[in-house]
Recover the amino acids of this structure.
């Protein structure tokens, strides 16, 4: 990136002997929405807290707008942040909460009131100014927290799992709202989540973190369809992993349970006899032969789950179990457990995991 | 169901009788100053006594300064311990409990040895210095109550997240403590303040041995030399304590309600 707005350079963080963030590098462009996605303990929140200034990195630096802010305190960085636990001040009304940062900054009263009204309109809660946080639902509180973070016009917005404490329906509507407000204001945003669906649906780019490192950085499409590591492939989406042995590296032939499939051009650097893991998304597999699919495997139906519009089928292929989804059709009966079947897929959809 | 209610009421009545009968007896005795009829003569004498007014005013003044010192000492300490040094909490709790274990007489003799007129810090060299030492001593005696009250108040709020939310909005430490933390633990601070007030108003040992004109030594003096007035003073002292408790209860209704615990 030629001129990144936020630049995280070789950041490391250890607590005692435990390294929580290991050599983290990232450039974020102005107005970009980037998600840190990973399981608990992967270092994503620590990295966010380093950007916010709540944690000091053991090594490396953080630059915002080209300025090194590594040594600055959180209240000197002009960053907005939304916390998982809302963190609204219980003793202040909604309007006072939103105006807190403006008052601290010494903004004149009339100007501050206008900004508070503007923020209340943006989050679509214009009549809530006089209420106290305890009079609001979780979703409303989190919208107020977002308005409070945005009111002082910060350079950067940090969202620390802001949707985790909300129920599923509110979570979906609020994530759409957050994304639309972010786009409207064009504010550079870092979003921390362990929920892949949130990350995939909201982000311009996703950083998948594992054990303190960025395993892969890319667009949601790249992360989902071209995972670069086994961890990313397993963590993002549902994935079938098939263990196979290379029969002929040059022609790309791989043997899975006595049947062979071709993976031309995907086995560079491997040799015959090597074992490898192949990954396939459930939606890339069809039950039975299908036109356009060049690879077939034989198996036995192990399990059938009727989920309404979709039927999830698990097929045993030798030692491997493959999950796939087929649409329910009222005119044809669902597959029967124990029935022999073929599955087919395109070799282009197969991912070779390193 | 009915049997359990009977026993509950019986326990309540016995407990209430245990507390109220001596108090009623004291009150009844305090009304007997005039021979053959009940009167408030004892109260008139006590409240009209210039020494009562002087000593009571002195003790109230000392109590106010003690509360201020206690708040300035305890609120930032308890806050900092919760925020940054939770591992020190057991040690600080132990230290704050020491005044319950070490008798006031030991503390005051320590003060007299440490802060005599020939010491580097001659608090006892002047009346104002001795007053200051008395305030410091009372703040120490009230520490177990003040610390516990404030710490309990801090436990009801998410200190760390609220602090970080204020910090990221640009607030410094003074703003955070004054505008975020203190208002949210105000009721707890007031509870500690009124307990401190109640302790200071009746305290005898420190005031007597430091020779200050406080209410405690006055109570003792009256008790040793008069018949009906000590009973009236005891009832007045109870009324003051209960008044303090009632104020705590009233103020608790105005406590900021947490989003997670609305009731």
């Amino acid at each position: 990136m030629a001129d990144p707005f936020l630049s995280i350079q070789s950041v490391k963080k250890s607590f005692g002997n435990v390294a929580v963030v290991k050599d983290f590098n990232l450039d974020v462009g102005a107005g970009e929405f980037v998600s840190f996605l990973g399981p608990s303990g992967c270092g994503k929140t620590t990295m966010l807290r380093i950007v916010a200034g709540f944690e000091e990195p053991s090594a490396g630096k953080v630059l915002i707008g080209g300025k090194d802010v590594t040594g600055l305190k959180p209240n000197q960085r002009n960053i907005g942040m939304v916390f998982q636990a809302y963190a609204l001040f219980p003793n202040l009304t909604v309007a006072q909460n939103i105006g807190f940062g403006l008052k601290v900054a010494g903004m004149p009263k009339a100007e501050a009131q206008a900004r508070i009204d503007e923020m209340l309109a943006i989050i679509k809660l214009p009549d809530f100014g006089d209420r106290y946080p305890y009079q609001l639902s979780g979703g409303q509180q989190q919208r107020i927290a977002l308005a409070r973070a945005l009111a002082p016009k910060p350079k950067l917005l940090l969202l620390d799992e802001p949707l985790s404490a909300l129920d599923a329906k509110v979570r979906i509507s609020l994530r759409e709202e957050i994304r639309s407000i972010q786009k409207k204001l064009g504010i550079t945003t870092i979003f921390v989540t362990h929920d892949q669906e949130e990350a995939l649906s909201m982000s311009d780019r996703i950083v998948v973190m594992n054990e303190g490192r960025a395993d892969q950085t890319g667009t949601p499409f790249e992360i989902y369809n071209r995972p670069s590591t086994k961890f990313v492939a397993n963590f993002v989406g549902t994935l079938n992993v098939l263990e196979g042995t290379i029969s002929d590296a040059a022609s790309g032939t791989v043997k899975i349970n006595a049947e062979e499939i071709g993976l031309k051009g995907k086995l560079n650097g491997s040799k015959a006899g090597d074992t490898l893991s192949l990954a396939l998304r459930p939606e890339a597999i069809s039950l039975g032969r299908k036109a356009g699919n060049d690879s077939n495997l034989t198996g036995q139906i192990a399990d059938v789950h009727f989920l309404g519009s979709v039927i999830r089928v698990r097929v045993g292929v030798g030692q491997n179990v493959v999950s796939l989804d087929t649409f329910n059709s009222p005119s044809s009966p669902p597959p029967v457990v124990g029935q022999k079947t073929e599955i087919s897929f395109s070799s282009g959809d197969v991912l070779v995991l390193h | 169901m009915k049997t359990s209610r009977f026993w509950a009421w019986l326990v309540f009545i016995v407990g209430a009788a245990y507390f109220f009968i001596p108090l009623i007896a004291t009150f009844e005795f305090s009304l007997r100053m005039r021979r053959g009829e009940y009167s408030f003569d004892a109260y008139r004498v006590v409240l009209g006594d210039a020494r009562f007014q002087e000593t009571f005013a002195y003790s109230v003044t000392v109590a106010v300064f003690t509360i201020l010192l206690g708040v300035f000492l305890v609120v930032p300490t308890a806050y900092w311990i919760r925020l940054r040094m939770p591992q020190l909490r057991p040690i600080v709790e132990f230290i704050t409990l020491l005044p319950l274990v070490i008798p006031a007489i030991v503390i005051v003799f320590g003060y007299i040895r440490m802060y005599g007129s020939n010491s580097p810090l001659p608090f006892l060299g002047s009346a104002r210095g001795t007053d200051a030492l008395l305030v410091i001593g009372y703040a120490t005696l009230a520490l177990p109550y003040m610390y516990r009250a404030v710490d309990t108040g801090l436990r009801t709020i998410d200190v760390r997240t609220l602090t970080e939310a204020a910090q990221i909005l640009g607030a410094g430490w003074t703003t955070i403590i004054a505008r975020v933390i203190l208002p949210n633990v105000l009721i707890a601070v007031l509870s500690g303040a009124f307990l401190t007030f109640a302790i200071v108003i009746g305290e005898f040992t420190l005031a007597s041995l430091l020779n200050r004109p406080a209410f405690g030594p006055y109570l003792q003096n009256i008790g040793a030399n008069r018949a009906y007035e000590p009973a009236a003073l005891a009832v007045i002292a109870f009324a003051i304590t209960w008044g303090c408790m009632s104020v705590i209860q009233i103020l608790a209704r105005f406590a900021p309600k947490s989003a997670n615990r609305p009731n």
In short: Residues 50-252 of chain B form a domain with the MetI-like fold fold (CATH 1.10.3720.10). DSSP finds twelve helices and no strands in chain B. The first helix of chain B runs from residue 2 to 30.
